[in-house]
Amino acid sequence: MIIILLGPPGAGKGTIAGEIKKKIDIPIISTGDILRNAIQDSTELGKEVQVYVNSGKLVPDHLIMRIVENRINQKDCMEGFMFDGFPRTIQQAQELDLLVQQLKKKIDQVFYFEASHNVIIERLSARRVCTKCNAIYNLNYDPPKVADKCDTCGGKLIQRDDDKEETIKKRLEVFNNETLPLVDYYQENKLLTKINADQDVDDRFREVWKRITELNLTGKKE
Ligand code: AP5
């Protein structure tokens, strides 16, 4: 099974991916997390992509495709996976279609999370992430039990470098110019479900789960 979570920064893609995973145990492939981990570990890839990620620009397609191709060919992805924040350009979507075809799989559903500008800014300014397990918190809606400490693994919580107001604005501009055309792309392929991402987490997940159930994907992994 292949699910794609599409939407502007702060729409809650990562949060919903975590909720889906509690019900369907397939890996979450977050290109953003992979890039940030590479930056944190100062790998060759990390050094190459740091300038893009920290300024809110997209990392070049050829680097992203190399990451994705490696990841989806790993053993834990055999039964399916969900993408959080990939694809982000038409080029990436077209190359993904070819990869999926080669694997003799298909994309089952694309959820597009629509969120309003002020909600995005408010959520991202209050977001904190775990440096160890990438768990997501929000100081306003979902604070950790102990300040700056992950409830799950005890890791240190930090504010992402790209969650500063100026960079958030840049990321939104990049989303509108480069990623929004994917809504039409997947609508034409009859794969898209729109979700109102201004709702609270429970209501939004209820909508997503209803659609997954309608599509008979609940027990499906391949
Ligand atoms: P990435 O990490 O993918 O960032 P993003 O797409 O900007 O999305 P976010 O992670 O900011 O938001 P989200 O929608 O997951 O929201 P979350 O669930 O955390 O990418 C970062 C960078 O990497 C890019 O700028 C680019 O440089 C590069 N990159 C990555 N992929 C790439 C690609 N394919 N091609 C090229 N470059 C790429 O929620 C946000 C906050 O709100 C949290 O605090 C959460 O707790 C809270 N929250 C969520 N939902 C709700 C709700 N319903 N009610 C209240 N609070 C909520």
Explain this structure to me?
With 222 residues, the protein is an alpha/beta fold. It is 47% helix and 14% strand. It contains nine helices and eight strands. The protein has helices spanning 13-23, 31-40, 44-55, 61-72, 90-102, 117-125, 165-179, 181-188, 201-214; strands spanning 2-6, 28-30, 81-84, 109-114, 127-130, 136-138, 157-158, 192-196. α1 (13-23) packs across α9, α2 (31-40) packs across α3 and α4 runs parallel beside α5 (90-102). The N and C termini lie close together (5 Å). The site of BIS(adenosine)-5'-pentaphosphate (AP5) has 37 residues, from α1, α2, α3, α6 and β6. BIS(adenosine)-5'-pentaphosphate binds at residues 7, 9-15, 31-32, 35, 52-53, 56-59, 64, 85-88, 92, 123-124, 127, 136-138, 141-142, 162, 171, 199-201, 204.
Number of helices: 9
Cα shape: globular
Strand order of the largest sheet: 2-3-1-4-8
Q: Which radius of gyration do the C-alpha atoms yield?
A: 17 Å
Strand composition percent = 5-15%
Averaging pLDDT over every residue, what do you get? 95
- SS class: alpha/beta
Number of strands: 8
Bound chemical compounds: BIS(adenosine)-5'-pentaphosphate
Order of helices and strands: EHEHHHEHEHEEEHHEH
The major sheet is characterized as: 5 strands, parallel
Taking the alpha carbons of the first and last residues, their distance comes to: 5 Å
Low-confidence stretches: none
Helicity level: 40-55%
Compose a concise summary of this entry.
With 222 residues, this protein is α/β, with parallel strands linked by helices. 47% of the residues lie in helices and 14% in strands.
